[in-house]
Specification:
single chain; 15 helices; mainly alpha; Growth Hormone, Chain: A; 396 residues
């Protein structure tokens, strides 16, 4: 699964910078909040299809089907964009925000079903680290080839990289076995479609959903400010893609260093209660710095810190949360939290930013204040002890 994540993140890095550049050129960076506001609707469609496939095909074949469909969609998008279709630029931007979460979280659902807590503490960091190496290579590929080959060339390359990910993920299921879904008398297909009933049974899932949503509200605020500053500093498309690629290569390198060197030690010696509470405090300080010293550097630094921690310590600590739970929580509720919650936070905050932009031009200091407030709310969600209570699965 780590190898699959490597190829998916490699391709995602190509697609992320390329699709952002294409969108900025087609619609303008000021319209990023508009396209992001469509994310919740797109995610509902994604999760509806995913849950239907999971019920009918099981975990292994669902991963195969969703991966293959994602590769096909990127190829189709490339064809239409190459022929001048502006709507497909927006569709690809929305798609890239959905597909990577859908696939990566399926990998983690499998790992959380096969690893025990102590094993996860040792292996989560290296697994995330291997995927980050893919991100580093993606960024370096952009930095070196974007101006030579052009931004559009990155799209079919991203689609091709999904194919080895399919092979490795299917091999992982053959070796590790497919997790067995627990059956109970009160389960019905309608109840299972999104796993919403699980949030009534386990209050800690509600807190985790709140953590993920508020963290991604902060992520979106920092991303929009960073992209705005980047567009102003580097308006030429291919150069902007190359600079963006170099930035994300450095970001993934920092994440990988954390994942391989620090995450196993941190998870072993520090309780994940402390870890979850420390991360939003770090972002409080970074947003304060961005408020006091608004610039491309401070925006890039704040977003860099967020993503570096999100890709490493936060991700590893969050995955420990799911291990004691049932199949339905790991494969259904987890998709609500980590796929819908992640992108709902971005989409919802984009709608709010869009309305605010109608009334006034938002400055860097304003975005910093929004980020500070989001960090405070995030901290509020990690304070309840309920979040950290171990909840055993029904089979235990």
């Amino acid at each position: 699964m780590a190898s699959s994540a490597f190829f998916i993140i490699f391709g995602y890095e190509l697609l992320r910078s390329a699709s952002t550049t294409l969108f900025n050129q087609a619609y303008g960076v000021q319209n990023l909040p508009i396209v992001m506001s469509f994310l919740p609707v797109a995610l509902i469609l994604f999760l509806f299809i995913y849950n239907k496939l999971l019920t009918r095909l099981g975990a292994r074949q669902t991963l195969f089907a969703t991966s293959l469909l994602c590769a096909i969609f990127v190829f189709i998008s490339y064809y239409f964009i190459l022929n001048g279709s502006r709507p497909w630029v927006a569709l690809l931007y929305i798609f890239r925000e959905c597909y990577v979460m859908l696939l990566i979280e399926q990998y983690w659902s499998f790992l959380n079903s096969r690893l025990k807590t102590e094993e996860s503490k040792k292996l989560s960091g290296p697994v995330i680290g291997i995927s980050s190496i893919g991100g580093i290579l993606g960024g370096l590929t952009l930095a070196y080839f974007a101006q030579r080959l052009g931004t559009m060339t990155m799209l079919p390359l991203a689609a091709v990289l999904i194919l080895p990910a399919i092979l490795f993920s299917q091999w992982a299921y053959r070796v590790g076995g497919e997790p067995v879904e627990e059956k109970s008398n009160h389960d019905t297909s309608s109840e299972k479609n999104f796993g919403l009933r699980l949030f009534k049974q386990h209050r800690s899932l509600v807190f985790m959903f709140g953590i993920v949503v508020t963290s991604q509200i902060l992520s979106n605020i920092l991303m929009i400010e960073f992209q705005t500053s980047l567009q102003m500093a580097y308006p030429e498309p291919d150069l902007q893609t190359a600079v963006s690629g170099s930035y994300y290569a450095a970001l993934n390198a920092a994440s990988a260093a954390l994942q391989f060197l620090l995450v196993p030690l941190i998870l072993r010696f520090i309780s994940y209660r402390i870890i979850h509470r420390a991360i939003p405090i770090v972002h409080l300080f970074s947003c304060a710095y961005m408020f006091l010293f608004p610039s491309l550097f401070s925006a890039g630094l704040s977003y860099f810190l967020f993503k570096a921690l999100d890709y490493s310590i936060f991700k590893a600590a969050k995955e420990l949360f799911y291990i004691p739970f049932s199949f339905d929580v790991r494969y259904r509720a987890k998709q609500i939290i980590d796929t819908f919650g992640y992108r709902f936070g971005k989409g919802g905050s984009s709608i709010a930013i869009l309305f605010l932009q109608r009334g006034a031009v938002l400055s860097s200091s304003t975005y910093a204040l929004f980020g500070f407030f989001a960090s405070v709310v995030w901290l509020g969600f990690v304070l309840p002890r309920t979040l950290f209570e171990k909840t055993p699965s029904p089979s235990e």
